[in-house]
Amino acid sequence: MQDIIKVGMADLKVVKSPHILTTLGLGSCVGIAVYDLNNQIAGLAHIMLPDSTQIKNNANKAKFADTAMEVLLEELKKQGANDRKLTAKIAGGAQMFALDNKSDMMKIGARNAQATKKILNDYKIPLLAEDTGGNFGRTIEVYPDTGILLVKAIGKGKTEL
Amino acid sequence: MNLSVNDLNSMHLDVLKEIGNIGAGNAATSLAVMIQKKVDMQVPVVKILDVQDVPMVLGGEENIVAGIYFGMTGEIEGNIMVLLDMPSARKLTNFMMGGLSETSCEDDLSQLNDMEKSALQEIGNILSGSYVSSLASLTNLRVELTTPSLCVDMAGAILSVPAIQFGTISDCVLMIENTLFDGHQEMKANFFLIPDENSFDVLLQSLGVSG
User: Fold this and answer.
1) In chain B, which residues have pLDDT < 70?
2) Do B160 and A100 lie within an 8 Å CB cutoff?
3) Among B71, B157, B171, whose Cβ lies nearest the Cβ of A137?
4) Does pTM top 0.95 for this prediction?
5) Catalytic positions of A, please?
6) Which of B32, B84, B130, B180 sits 20 to 30 Å CA-CA off B46?
7) Which among B70, B147, B160 has CB closest to A27?
8) Could you tell me if residue B158 is left (phi over 0), alpha (psi between -120 and 50 degrees) or otherwise beta?
9) Which phi-psi region, left, alpha or beta, contains residue B140 (left: φ > 0; alpha: ψ -120 to 50)?
10) What is the DSSP letter of B37?
11) What residues does each domain of chain B span?
12) Which residues is B21 bridged to in the sheet?
């Protein structure tokens, strides 16, 4: 039986094949999928902000790119993943609204994507594919057996990464 | 002292509800003038929701909704978002355009033409303008709105914007739910008031309910 495990906003989960992970309606948040294909284990973090050290209210580790990655890697290892064989795919980081003001907050999607890439690089996890930016929402599905990241957007159909 | 949404007590909520009430009253009046119909409203409901739960209130993360987003500048800085479900957005645009809205087909609610988009932005203007003017008059603070930005997409994606902005100070968002009636049809408009971290204190202080 295949379960579809839902990952909410500021949340992260790890599953083994045949189960899959999904997160619905990603906007400016970024979905970070990390795979160990040999062991068919994958994890998904749905982060909202780039950096926990900039924010006072940082108790929820899954909310930030930096701390979410730490916890995600721990969870992957606990489930038996080999941390030297990990690969990643990311999606999200859109700018849903276009306002003229130069507020940093409006560019949060791009900053989330950028921070995520930097952290993957720091951990030496290869980023195999990404679908980031734009001004639209995305629903994603993570398949631990094939390493596929399925991206769905309104009016744009499905894309396999 | 820094207050966050989590620290709001029932008195704070009453004040915010009152702003919502006056704002919705003004909004209903302006809408009625615009569409030349009688518009009634219910007492607004102020909700403090966990970010995880907000999309459920709006029919799930993948439900398509229309968000109209404004920047607030002046003595209170931040953002305000008006969120309409598609049936409500459709009814309101139809009223505004005197029934001339083209894409009235119920099964293709996400496709809006430019006229309809512009009508929706105008509706957002009326609703949020009424809120902000009631906020300004109750607090004696100067608040201005930027021009609106419209986005029709999945509820989860649209809500990520206020959720992230609240996310820097809290894990909850403040939502004011309004129900409008034109006599036989019901329309729902949700407001998200998103003051910047410092403006939240300014707002509560000027209302005399700080701490």
Assistant:
1) 1-10, 12, 99-110, 169-172, 209-211
2) no
3) B157
4) no
5) 29
6) B32
7) B160
8) alpha
9) left
10) S
11) 5-100+108-207
12) none
Give the gyration radius of chain A's Cα atoms. Answer: 15
What pLDDT digit, counting tens, does each position of A37-56 carry?
999 999 999 999 999 888 77
Nearest CB partner across the interface for B55, out of A25, A97, A154: A25
CATH C-level class of A4-160: alpha beta
Judged by CB atoms closer than 8 Å, whether chains meet at B151 and A135 is answered as: yes
Q: Which residue has the tokens 């509560």?
A: B204
Q: Please give the CATH number for the structural domain made up of B5-100+108-207.
A: 3.40.1550.10
Residue among B153, B194, B149 nearest B66 (CA): B153
Average of pLDDT values for A105-113? 85
Euclidean distance between CA atoms A84 and A97, whole angstroms: 39
What is the ipTM for the molecules in this complex?
A: 0.88
Helices (H), A49-105: 65-78
Q: Where are the domains of chain A?
A: 4-160
| B165 interface with A at CB cutoff 8 Å | yes
pLDDT tens per residue across span A56-78: 777 889 999 999 999 999 999 99
Residues 6+ apart with CB under 8 A from B97: B115, B116, B119
Q: What is the pLDDT of residues A117-146, one digit of tens each?
A: 999 999 999 999 999 999 999 999 999 999
User: Does B163 sit within 8 Å of A60, measured CB to CB?
Assistant: no
Angle B138-B141-B142 (CA atoms, 0-180°, nearest 5)? 125
